[in-house]
Fold this sequence. Notes:
Number of domains: 1
Helix content: over 70%
Radius of gyration: 25 Å
Strand content: under 5%
Structural class: mainly alpha
Oligomer: single chain
Mean pLDDT: 81
Distance between the termini: 79 Å
Order of helices and strands: HHHHHHH
Number of helices: 7
Shape: elongated
Amino acid sequence: MRSLLRHTERHRTDRIGWLRAAVLGANDGIVSTASLVVGVAAAQGNPQSVLVAGVAGLVAGAMSMAAGEYVSVHSQADTENADLARERAEIEADPVAEQRELEAIYVARGLESGLARQVAAQLMAHDALGAHARDELGISEAFAARPVQAALASAGSFALGAALPLAVAWLSPQGQLITWVSATSLFFLALLGAISARAGGAAIGVGALRVTFWGALAMAVTAGIGALFGTVA
């Protein structure tokens, strides 16, 4: 009976397509918006100008992330489709040679020649293009390019991430905006790093520290530039 049970084991690689885009978008949203808000505030900008700059950064950043991710991932999808079309034509033109190619791949991975020949023959009969896509080209369902999914994940996560420091800037006490935004944004970044590391199966502490360090550096540099321009003005 146990042999008839459905295999339900799930792996983290199934998440890699949307997880990468979502983490990148949220991280950029927090870092860029917090840095923008802190920089404008350090340049002696009034609360209204700080909020306007933050909202503008949120909208522009989300659109930029969506467009950039879509174009980038679509280029990957175009390359994959071109390779698959070429492989399909080669299989139709000379299936025997393509089967030998699979045999050689499996032998290189450790199978005996006779077993490799049997495996290649059965896979060619079942799904020749799928076998070549997976074992020759390295294209699998888990890693397949999905432009729309990546664009939506990036834009949505960027907007969500950017909304956090923007909300803090709106609610922070008078004269304490820089402190509040900087402190809470570093907390948000540490939390994001920990969550993404947990979802990806990596070390939580390392993930949190890595994201927090680069966020702190970005805000420090932007605040310094803002203060410099504020002094000059």
